[in-house]
């Protein structure tokens, strides 16, 4: 399947999930993350889920990171440039949903991309080679291309990987892992 077909398929599958299923699956994903060898790292970039898109609820991961006293980085998106600005999450961070219902920090202490050790990546679909399908705007490919070569890229998905994505581009950045409620896929 190509990216457009996969976007349609996985948006439809996510729309069928109940609020309770999303919560249960999100908690299972967060618990699976504890099995990864990433916890000696310091700076963790976390996306804040879009409830209306029925994304993986990252609140459980946020609680784990805070409990482990990690530096948590969140982003603000610029839809004109398709770039993201990254901010350190603090007790004083205030959020506002943008026009796409993405919760974003209003302002704060900016974090350089070079500091980030681990990135949790949203996705609609992924294949068995670690290639992902997002919403098609390129925000995460742009962001990941600027990260250090050794940054750990972890996709979060309610569903298991597809065999292959037919139209992968050279600019697409492969992930290192994808964590689902059922297990950890290592690429």
TrEMBL record:
| Protein's UniProt keywords contain Magnesium | yes
Reaction(s) catalysed by this chain's protein: (6S)-5-formyl-5,6,7,8-tetrahydrofolate + ATP = (6R)-5,10-methenyltetrahydrofolate + ADP + phosphate
Q: Which GO terms describe its molecular function?
A: 5-formyltetrahydrofolate cyclo-ligase activity
Q: Which UniProt keywords apply?
A: ATP-binding, Ligase, Magnesium, Metal-binding, Nucleotide-binding
- In this record, what's one Pfam family? 5-FTHF_cyc-lig
Requisite cofactors: Mg(2+)
Under which EC number(s) is this enzyme classified? Answer: 6.3.3.2
- Entry's SUPFAM superfamilies? NagB/RpiA/CoA transferase-like
Q: What class of enzyme is it?
A: ligase
Task: Give the NCBIfam families listed for this entry.
Answer: MTHFS_bact
Q: What is stated as this protein's family in its record?
A: Belongs to the 5-formyltetrahydrofolate cyclo-ligase family.
* Name listed for the protein in its UniProt record: 5-formyltetrahydrofolate cyclo-ligase
Species this chain originates from: Flavobacterium macrobrachii
